[in-house]
């Protein structure tokens, strides 16, 4: 009796009312008290639905047909509604901005207690306690817009933990965080779990990042079914993740590629304590020796030149002072740096969204300092992170055609160019669909198409792959690469994703408080520990692995691995597009 | 939307008594004074209210550059209204006060003492509360407002909706700027010379993404609030509820007395108007 | 299977819609009035947004958004003008009844419904700005009739334009995202 699971699913299926197939099928699983469980799966695998069943969002917000038996904390779920469940399961949603409903940190932490009409002294006492525990005491009076992503997430945690629920459910806790903040956040979670004796359920598709802390069990979902329910070590030893379109930790793929028998490695999921035998080290060294060196692109003509740019927001200190930067035609540039360090400001200065106090901007050889946003847009396509902020039409065709129509292009030419762009972006089969029927990744692609239809020489993308699983991620990047290679389009990506930077960028620009902290190849940036620390980046697991193997040039190893991997993925996604 | 919306009470205001007033007191004072001032046409009374409002303004120690823009706008707005009132019916003052003493001019636009006095009253009605509101705008922590509203009897759900609106104003400004610029990049012409039809069309193009992203935001925030049990109880408590201090009682009692006097004057004056021409 | 712990008053969704709505409408009123070419007459896009929110969330949200957004806007100029604030709230309330026949979340939008919506908005605008607001100014503020009716009629016309053009477009765009019962095929 004492080993009764805190959450149990017995033969559970769920079908949303407006869908014609079940999203979850015959799910059986049991989660014990105090476990740290990691639920993962590609987009559409049903992992969010599973989370919504646990916290009661189903059936409160989505109706559908639920069969089988779900027991939470010893009670059948049918007897518990969202409110009852909220005392047992604390949920931290993906978007920390939406979760933050108070005007200040203190009010947001107090929110649930206020709703329970707890007396004043309890409110203040509990807020003080949790603020101290999560290191928020000095931030209590701050507004959400003054906080970093990591701080907002700590507020979200405090805001649900004030109830002392035994179960903590986190939906994509690593979205929107820079690598350093993500690592801190995982460590905090690990510490809290031990401290409060919590049962922790993490739902995410970033496997390498989540596995930075010890996880008791991984549950892998695919097409609504549980395809694995084992320890991370067990799962990593199989080829299950890649088979289901999920990215395994890169160092694991590297070991497998090098012919290391990972089945014999203990603690495979924990890179820090992982030990390599002499034979395995030799295998890695050998593998690296067989790989070709990466071919570097030679730099060409300057396409964007910023000369002595100066800018500061009104009544705030100057961010950029005499800032100069040149980007060459055909480069794929990654712009990285911690949150709030001026990356978006810099892009806005290039696109003309902001006007500098001094300095000049050249596009190619022309001085474009005086050009309007619209004029610059003919040469620079800019794609925001959130496609919802860009889409102003309801049909895909109209959305893509809009830029041409606003430029007075005749309808025959417009049609030709829109169709051509839709074909390049793989959206042609959907051209008559309403945009609301598309997935997030497809919407993003529509916004890229809408920029491309103007045939820009430069494409700037804010977090191009945010929120996309491996399959969609590779498709998107293969597509951008094709543009870059075939049309010589210069691509600038603002990103927190070190693997993406390493895999696709020719050049990395690290920005820190309006200064260029580093401007070098991704490999050079990732081997500079001072830069990594200062700009909140993180080393690749491949580098750590290479060091363990005793390789002289860890980053060279990482480079080789990634280029080999990319060729492989490109081939696959070429078939998908 | 270039104006920065700041939620922080300025440094120079921190220790003023008007800053120490609780949100509840401020709402009560503002509501009751603006309503009695709306109804009353007793000139002396309106002058007393103006002086009372100036006390708050004094306490706030606002800098000229903080209020300059607003004061110019209010002056222009008030002048326009007074001129309109006069142009439409220059004899209105005589109708109200039941007599006519011509000051200058003749015929339709003849300016009477009554009209001038009526316009003076109108002016007072437009401006008497301005100093008080300016003082409150710069000395109130927005977090206190919802708790204050709830305390004076607004249903907590409405109070919280107001709290959320204050929470979202900076986000909406940010979203709006992003959307507007993204649409300009698409080729949307933002020139000031565009005609009315084009202006409406282009604002629709900005409002539609704003609608879509707001509807998403509403859905997710609703879920987040339900997961933390908003709206499950008949009542709610507020972290920002504050104890009333001496200054609150003092201000509330003074305001109460002023309101009582204002109501009493309806009998003394035999109506809403104070008539010096009788 | 709905939660048993409902409390009286607004739903959580209505509270959030009101909060987000007040923020947006306030900003539209405060920072984006569109000049019409006639001096001192602007088109208030906030009214179009009030109409949109009312048509999706109903009379209570419409009225509350209009009331508080108008009040905030007046306060930000230093001067609340209660008769017009109340008239705006009544407009939000009336236009919210369009939710009953538009049923945007469940049924497709037809030309007939858009016509009904526009009929309602014209009537609501005429009643609120053409009658209630000026009468309020006459009765409460004792202003001369000619002046307040001129202001009232101007507001009636500009708001009918705002809701009729921008509001209608917002509703149509939103409706297209709501109902896609028919199966989509790639071709």
UniProtKB/TrEMBL annotation, chain A:
<dbReference type="Pfam" id="PF00005">
    <property type="entry name" value="ABC_tran"/>
</dbReference>
<keyword id="KW-0547">Nucleotide-binding</keyword>
<dbReference type="InterPro" id="IPR015856">
    <property type="entry name" value="ABC_transpr_CbiO/EcfA_su"/>
</dbReference>
<dbReference type="GO" id="GO:0005524">
    <property type="term" value="F:ATP binding"/>
</dbReference>
<dbReference type="GO" id="GO:0016887">
    <property type="term" value="F:ATP hydrolysis activity"/>
</dbReference>
<keyword id="KW-0677">Repeat</keyword>
<dbReference type="InterPro" id="IPR050095">
    <property type="entry name" value="ECF_ABC_transporter_ATP-bd"/>
</dbReference>
<comment type="function">
    <text>Probably part of an ABC transporter complex. Responsible for energy coupling to the transport system.</text>
</comment>
<keyword id="KW-0472">Membrane</keyword>
<keyword id="KW-1003">Cell membrane</keyword>
<dbReference type="Pfam" id="PF12558">
    <property type="entry name" value="DUF3744"/>
</dbReference>
<dbReference type="GO" id="GO:0042626">
    <property type="term" value="F:ATPase-coupled transmembrane transporter activity"/>
</dbReference>
<dbReference type="InterPro" id="IPR003593">
    <property type="entry name" value="AAA+_ATPase"/>
</dbReference>
<dbReference type="InterPro" id="IPR003439">
    <property type="entry name" value="ABC_transporter-like_ATP-bd"/>
</dbReference>
<dbReference type="GO" id="GO:0043190">
    <property type="term" value="C:ATP-binding cassette (ABC) transporter complex"/>
</dbReference>
<keyword id="KW-0813">Transport</keyword>
<keyword id="KW-0067">ATP-binding</keyword>
<protein>
    <submittedName>
        <fullName>Cobalt ABC superfamily ATP binding cassette transporter, ABC protein</fullName>
    </submittedName>
</protein>
<keyword id="KW-1278">Translocase</keyword>
<comment type="similarity">
    <text>Belongs to the ABC transporter superfamily.</text>
</comment>
<dbReference type="InterPro" id="IPR022216">
    <property type="entry name" value="ABC_Co_transporter"/>
</dbReference>
<feature type="domain" description="ABC transporter">
    <location>
        <begin position="7"/>
        <end position="248"/>
    </location>
</feature>
Automatic annotation (TrEMBL), chain B:
<keyword id="KW-1133">Transmembrane helix</keyword>
<dbReference type="Pfam" id="PF02361">
    <property type="entry name" value="CbiQ"/>
</dbReference>
<dbReference type="GO" id="GO:0005886">
    <property type="term" value="C:plasma membrane"/>
</dbReference>
<dbReference type="InterPro" id="IPR003339">
    <property type="entry name" value="ABC/ECF_trnsptr_transmembrane"/>
</dbReference>
<keyword id="KW-0812">Transmembrane</keyword>
<feature type="transmembrane region" description="Helical">
    <location>
        <begin position="69"/>
        <end position="88"/>
    </location>
</feature>
<feature type="transmembrane region" description="Helical">
    <location>
        <begin position="249"/>
        <end position="268"/>
    </location>
</feature>
<feature type="transmembrane region" description="Helical">
    <location>
        <begin position="116"/>
        <end position="139"/>
    </location>
</feature>
<protein>
    <submittedName>
        <fullName>Transmembrane component MtsC of energizing module of methionine-regulated ECF transporter</fullName>
    </submittedName>
</protein>
<feature type="transmembrane region" description="Helical">
    <location>
        <begin position="27"/>
        <end position="57"/>
    </location>
</feature>
<keyword id="KW-0472">Membrane</keyword>
């Amino acid at each position: 009796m004492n080993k009764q699971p805190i959450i149990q699913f017995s033969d559970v299926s769920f079908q949303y009312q407006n869908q014609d197939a079940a999203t979850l099928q015959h799910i059986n699983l049991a989660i014990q008290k105090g476990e740290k469980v990691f639920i993962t799966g590609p987009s559409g695998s049903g992992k969010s639905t599973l989370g919504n069943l646990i916290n009661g969002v189903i059936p409160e917000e989505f109706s559908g047909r639920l069969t089988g038996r779900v027991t939470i904390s010893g009670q059948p779920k049918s007897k518990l509604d969202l409110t009852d469940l909220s005392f047992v399961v604390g949920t931290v949603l993906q978007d920390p901005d939406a979760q933050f409903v108070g005007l200040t940190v203190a009010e947001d932490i107090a929110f649930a207690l206020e709703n329970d009409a707890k007396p004043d002294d309890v409110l203040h006492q509990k807020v003080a306690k949790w603020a101290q525990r999560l290191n928020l005491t000095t931030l209590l009076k701050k507004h959400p817009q003054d906080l970093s992503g990591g701080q907002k997430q700590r507020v979200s945690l405090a805001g649900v933990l004030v109830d002392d629920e035994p179960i903590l459910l986190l939906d994509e806790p690593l979205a929107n965080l820079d690598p350093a903040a993500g690592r801190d956040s995982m460590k905090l979670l690990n510490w809290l779990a031990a401290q409060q004796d919590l049962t922790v359920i993490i739902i995410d598709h970033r496997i390498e990042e989540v596995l930075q802390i010890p996880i008791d069990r991984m549950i892998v979902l695919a097409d609504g079914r549980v395809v694995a329910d084992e320890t991370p070590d067990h799962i990593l030893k199989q080829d299950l993740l890649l088979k289901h379109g999920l990215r395994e930790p890169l160092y694991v793929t590297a070991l497998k590629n090098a012919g290391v028998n990972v089945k014999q490695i203990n603690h495979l999921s924990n890179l820090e304590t992982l030990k390599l035998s002499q034979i395995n080290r030799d295998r890695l060294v050998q593998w690296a020796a067989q790989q070709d060196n990466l071919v570097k692109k030679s730099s060409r003509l300057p396409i964007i030149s910023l000369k002595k740019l100066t800018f500061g927001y009104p009544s705030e200190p100057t961010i950029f002072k005499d800032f100069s930067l040149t980007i060459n035609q055909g480069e794929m540039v990654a712009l990285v740096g911690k949150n709030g360090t001026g990356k978006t400001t810099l892009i806005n200065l290039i696109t003309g969204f902001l006007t500098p106090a001094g300095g000049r901007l050249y596009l190619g050889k022309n001085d474009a300092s005086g050009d309007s946003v619209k004029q610059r847009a003919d040469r620079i396509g800019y794609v925001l992170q959130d496609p919802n902020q860009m889409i102003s039409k309801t049909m895909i065709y109209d959305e893509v055609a809009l830029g041409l129509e606003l430029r007075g292009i005749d309808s025959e030419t417009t049609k030709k160019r829109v169709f051509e762009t839709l074909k390049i972006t793989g959206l042609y089969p959907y051209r008559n669909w309403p945009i609301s029927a598309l997935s997030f990744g497809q919407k993003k692609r529509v916004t890229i198409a809408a920029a491309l239809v103007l045939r820009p020489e430069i494409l700037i993308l804010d977090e191009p792959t945010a929120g996309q699983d491996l399959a969609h991620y590779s498709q998107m990047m293969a597509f951008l690469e094709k543009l870059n290679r075939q049309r010589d389009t210069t691509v600038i990506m603002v990103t927190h994703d070190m693997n993406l930077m390493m895999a696709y960028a020719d050049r990395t620009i690290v920005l820190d408080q309006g200064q260029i902290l580093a401007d070098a190849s991704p490999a050079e940036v990732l081997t500079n520990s001072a830069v990594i620390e200062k700009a909140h980046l993180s080393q690749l697991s491949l580098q750590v692995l290479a060091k363990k193997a005793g390789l002289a040039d860890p980053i060279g190893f990482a480079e080789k691995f990634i280029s080999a991997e990319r060729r492989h993925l490109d081939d696959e996604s070429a078939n998908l597009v | 939307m270039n104006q920065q919306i700041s939620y922080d009470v300025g440094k120079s205001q921190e220790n003023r008594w008007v800053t120490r007033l609780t949100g509840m007191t401020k709402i009560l004072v503002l509501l009751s004074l603006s309503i009695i001032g709306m109804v009353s046409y007793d000139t002396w009374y309106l002058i007393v209210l103006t002086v009372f409002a100036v006390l708050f303004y004094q306490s706030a120690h606002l800098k000229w550059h903080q209020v300059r823009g607003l004061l110019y706008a209010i002056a222009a707005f008030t002048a326009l209204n007074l001129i309109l009132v006069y142009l439409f019916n220059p004899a209105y003052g005589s109708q109200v006060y039941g007599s006519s003493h011509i000051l200058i001019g003749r015929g339709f636009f003849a300016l009477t003492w009554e009209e001038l006095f009526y316009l003076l009253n109108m002016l007072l009605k437009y401006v008497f509360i301005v100093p008080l509101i300016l003082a409150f705008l710069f000395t109130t922590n927005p977090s206190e407002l919802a708790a204050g509203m709830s305390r004076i009897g607004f249903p907590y759900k409405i109070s919280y909706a107001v709290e959320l609106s204050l929470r979202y104003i900076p986000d909406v400004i940010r979203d709006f700027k992003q959307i507007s610029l993204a649409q300009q990049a698409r080729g949307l012409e933002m020139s000031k010379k565009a005609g009315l039809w084009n202006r409406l069309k282009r604002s629709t193009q900005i409002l539609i993404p704003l609608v879509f992203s707001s509807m998403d935001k509403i859905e997710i925030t609703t879920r987040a609030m339900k997961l933390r049990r908003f709206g499950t109880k008949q009542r709610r408590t507020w972290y920002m509820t504050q104890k009333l201090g001496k200054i609150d009682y003092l201000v509330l009692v003074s305001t109460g007395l002023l309101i009582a006097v204002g109501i009493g004057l309806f009998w003394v004056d035999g109506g809403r108007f104070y008539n010096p021409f009788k | 299977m709905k939660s048993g712990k409902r409390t009286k008053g607004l739903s959580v969704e209505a509270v959030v819609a009101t909060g987000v709505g007040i923020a947006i409408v306030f900003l539209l009123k405060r920072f984006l009035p569109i000049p019409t070419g006639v001096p001192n007459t602007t088109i208030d896009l906030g009214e179009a947004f009030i109409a949109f929110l009312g048509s999706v969330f109903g009379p209570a949200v419409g009225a509350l958004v209009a009331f508080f957004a108008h009040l905030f806007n007046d306060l930000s100029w230093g001067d609340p003008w209660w008769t017009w604030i109340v008239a705006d709230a009544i407009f939000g309330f009336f236009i919210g009844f369009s939710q009953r026949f538009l049923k945007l979340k469940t049924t497709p939008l037809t030309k007939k419904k858009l016509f009904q919506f526009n009929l309602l908005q014209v009537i609501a605008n005429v009643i609120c700005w053409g009658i209630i607001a000026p009468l309020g100014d006459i009765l409460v503020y004792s202003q001369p009739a000619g002046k307040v009716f001129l202001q009232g009629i101007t507001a009636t016309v500009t708001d009918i334009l705002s809701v009729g053009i921008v509001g209608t477009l917002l509703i149509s765009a939103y409706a297209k995202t709501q109902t896609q019962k028919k199966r989509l095929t790639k071709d």
